[in-house]
Amino acid sequence: MNEEQKKWVEDTLGKAERKLAKVSERSAAKIPYSTAQGVHDDRSGDIGWWTNGFWGGMMWQMYRLTGEEKYRRIAEDNEKKLDACLMDYGKLDHDNGFRWLPTAVADYRLTKSEASKNRGLLAAGNLAGRYNNKGCFIRAWNDWGDDDHRGWAIIDCMMNLPLLYWASEETGDPRFRQVAVSHADTAMKAFVRGDGSVNHIVEFDLETGGKVKSYGGQGFGTGSSWTRGQSWGLYGFTISYLHTKDEAYLETAERIANYFIANIPEDGLIPVDFRQPREPAYQDSTAAAIAACGLIELSRLREGRQGEVYLNAALKLLGALAEHSTNWNEAEDNLLERCTAAYHDPEHEFSIIYGDYYFLEALMKLAGKELFIW
What is the pTM of this model? Predict the structure, then answer.
């Protein structure tokens, strides 16, 4: 980065740090998902919700940034509350990585807490147990009502695989890594299209492992291009490369990244789906923040012009978020605005905690200060 860009990063991270110093005190006892009229909600009563690790992750990042003990205490509280989920089989699913990488594994990386290591390994064991060895994929979700998800896998799971890589590295047991690699290999073939766009959901035959069909999921529809799914794939395959050094993963991450960059609008604000209709033109700030994290990592792996392309794209995304889609009012709790969980949901463009997490992580990456939890 040039000096102007470095100053922008320093100033923007400083604004986030000052705001989170106040937000952390107001929301210390909560596990937030969103905000209502600027006030964090609390998902402690819905302890199995998939985003419940990101608040703890933000607090560990702030602890890494500042060294202040209050952030450690809040993060540890979030982690302990998740024990109620860890002991409930029905609440455990493919998102174990999202819950325990930012909490228990982050804690263990920083403090060497044996209790946190145990939580991480329990979560990893459950995640590995969702593996279908015929289809070579990790099953998504559990069943609700008449829905049958036994053959379903989703692109999001690429970001949960680091829990398995960590478990393998920590225990010396290759089985965790083998499951992660097998799922990543399947995702390369079944999820990533030739142009670098990705499917959200793929259904496999439970007994033969053959691909049955794909679904539009949280995007506009089947065959469309849900932007957060692009971001999960971009960052997820980059992380799999970091853990395995398999060039195929790096090439896949770059194919997705190049597609993403080619579709960034002039204003840098990312739609929910790159192939959604002109109207309604819903945005998803979370997709921009996640993609920025992946692009920064790719910029570190590629020297010269290509690395600059990735870095500049990340800076464009983050700059647009900071200028147009971030709430800098220190009296309100959220950072990012205009986040959307799914195109066809009744509610759009609100605050979501993982958007805040990845925005903070991206800024800390650029400043060279982040705790790498993946």
Answer: 0.98
